[in-house]
Amino acid sequence: MQALAFVEHVDRELDVICLVKLLLRQRHGIDLRIANYYADAPLLLAGRPPRAVITPFFYATEDAVTADYVGGWPDARFANLAWEQVFYPSHEAIKRPRDDFTRRKVTHFAWTRTFADYMTSHGASSVRLAGHALYRLYQQPYRGYFETRADLAARFGLDPAKRWVFVPENYRWAFFKDAKLRRLAGHGVSEADLFEMRDYCARSLPKLVKWCAGLAADPGVEVILRPRPATREADMDGVIGKVLKASPRRFHLIKQGSAREWVIASDAVVSSYSTVLIEGALAGKSVLRVAPEPTPAALHYDWCDLVPAVETRDAFISACLAADSGDSGGPLKAWAEQTFFAAGDPVDRLVEGLAEVIKAGHAASAPQRKGPHGMAMPSWVRLVAGLAGPQARHALLLKHCPGYAYNLATHEKDLFSQADVQARVERWKAQLSTRPRVSEPAVQSSPV
Taking the CB of the first residue and of the last residue of the chain, which one, N or C, has fewer CB atoms within 10 A? Predict the structure, then answer.
């Protein structure tokens, strides 16, 4: 029995999906193939249709690439892991299911009861409450899977004896052009709110860079600034270059690795409204919210009020240097555990829920049909691309496949090989070698 799982952002998703792959094989004999949602589309659509497809998002069948999968695999069962579920107000219109197929034909996995209610209120008929598997990785037996502080120190030239302050920035709107904002406004979001969000981020990001540079001047600190997955490292480096005449030696711009290992290795996690603050609290770290400017209502999360906030450079530096043994994250941690783990162990519930969807997809005896899609390519391209590595395949398809949609600017770290997948699966196998099997079905909020 086989299924296909897609990944959009490696750092956000691949560790969880590889863990799911391992557990599906061990518990249910299911072979889960893992592919990039955009980069692998042409080859997959040219091959045999899968019976079950797991996606990182699913908003509407008209969306780029989604339309190709739905058209090319008319008999497949789709499950949506919905990797963006913690919404600020402006997200609520953008992230809703927008057509009948998405509402009626896709099984959506929810991290929280709030998201499950949100989806059903917009007409989704199959929503399963599983909890947030990624957040569960901060607990045993999963936590030991990630790269250690000593390994990160050696890899990036950091001093493990100093205080590490991890700053996952979340000012993504600062990099959006007018045309994109107007396009998003077409989904029901106020155009005025979008431009206000962009202006707020554009003003706040340079201030955060200055604050980080001031903190890095302290000899006892290592400051690690991490761009969002969809923000190019070169773009962030450009902002730093405009703001600072010279970057302090202990101020590091690092996009390598996942947020998980940096959170676990660091002493403090600092951001504006990034959900990585939630991860920092779950990991037992000091957490701090930076607010160099008042946050627009359209960007405000209620849970952010649980995090201590600083509004000035001096307060920022003082708070980052203060050791609180994770006490600052206590209220947020309590909220997160109640919110994201309400249904039991999210990893087990996700695995069992996906197993049900995959088995249902294999219950039909009729052969899978192939339908029309927009990624046709010459036969020689298919042959060569199938033998090429991820980077060479991307270059080939970009040139010879008209419908190819992988954007290297917004996904600069998201190409991966099957060897990368297998390496992570083997790491999980070693990490969980002594863990007993647990089987919990996902809570179903509405009928399949």
Answer: C
The tokens describing 234, both together, are: 């070169």
CA distance 253 to 26: 39
- The pLDDT value given to residue 441: 43
Q: Which of 349, 308, 294, 313 is nearest to 112 (CA)?
A: 349
- The dihedral through the CA atoms of 360, 364, 368, 369 has a sign that is negative
CATH H superfamily, domain 155-331: Glycogen Phosphorylase B; (3.40.50.2000)
The answer to whether residues 225 and 251 touch, using CB atoms and an 8 Å cutoff, is: yes
The position carrying tokens 């030239």 is 157
Phi and psi at residue 32, to the nearest 5°: -100, 115
Q: Which of 422, 356, 348, 257 lies closest to 54, judged by CA? A: 356
pLDDT reading at 445 higher than 60: no
Going by their DSSP bridges, the two strands 286-290 and 221-226 should be labelled as unpaired
pTM, 2 dp: 0.92
Inter-residue contact 8 to 35 (CB < 8 Å):
no
Return the amino acid letter for 433: S
| CA 28 remoteness from chain centre | 26
3-class state of residue 142 by DSSP: coil
Q: Is 72 in a helix, a strand, or coil? A: helix
Domain boundaries, the chain: 2-132+342-436, 155-331
Is 142 within 8 Å of 124 (Cβ atoms)? no
Nearest by Cα to 223 from 214, 234, 235: 214
Report the alpha-carbon distance of residue 410 to residue 385 in Å, rounded.
22
The CATH number corresponding to 2-132+342-436 among 3.40.50.2000, 1.20.1300.10, 3.90.1210.10, 3.40.50.2300 equals 3.40.50.2300
Backbone phi and psi for residue 79, each to the nearest 5 degrees, phi listed first: -125, 135
Q: How confident is the model at residue 303 (pLDDT cuts 50, 70, 90)?
A: very high
Question: Across the strands, what pairs with 221?
Answer: 163
Residue the block writes with tokens 């600083």: 310
Q: How far apart are CA 364 and CA 352, in angstroms?
A: 20
Most distant CA pair in the chain, distance: 67
